[in-house]
Write a structure and sequence with these properties.
The protein is mainly α. It has six helices and no strands.
Length: 199
Amino acid sequence: MKKGIIALIALGVIIFGLYQWGVGFNNTAIALKETSTKTWANVESSYQRRNDLIGNLVKTVQGAADFERGTLTDVIEARAKATSVSIDPTNITPEQLAQFNQAQSGLSGALSKLLVTVERYPDLKANQNFLELQSQLEGTENRINVARDRFNGTVEPYNLHIKTFPNSVLAGFLDFDELAYFKSEAGSEQAPDVNFDFE
């Protein structure tokens, strides 16, 4: 009878230990994933700030009657495309991030073209609103970079938590999937070809 009680106590301790491990794993995984979700929202907030500033910049530039309409149209269309791509922050996949990054890169390219074209318009370059918006855009680009880095910093502990053994066993069972890192667009490691020919 003593052996039966000892066996039941041992089994109870094992079950309790497994339960504690499962609860601890689940709660930690949820907390880490929630941190990544919140940080992704901060990335999107930085991109939204840039989109808002671009709208104001386009309005300021449109005031220059002889400004090139094609360049403005490119920026407006790229902005619309960039805002149409959305990501589910609770299930970020590499494909979603690639699509989002491609749309944002298209907007960055159109914006760069706009800012280079402005060099041909001294009155616009001297416009205080334009100069302030340009300065805010530069600061926002820095914010975007910091937000993306912070997002990647929150993905790492979550992915490590769900991929290490024995947590990986529970992660598969409880449906915790790996989150994707924000990566640069293919080819961005090469320096861009800059042409300052304003003729």
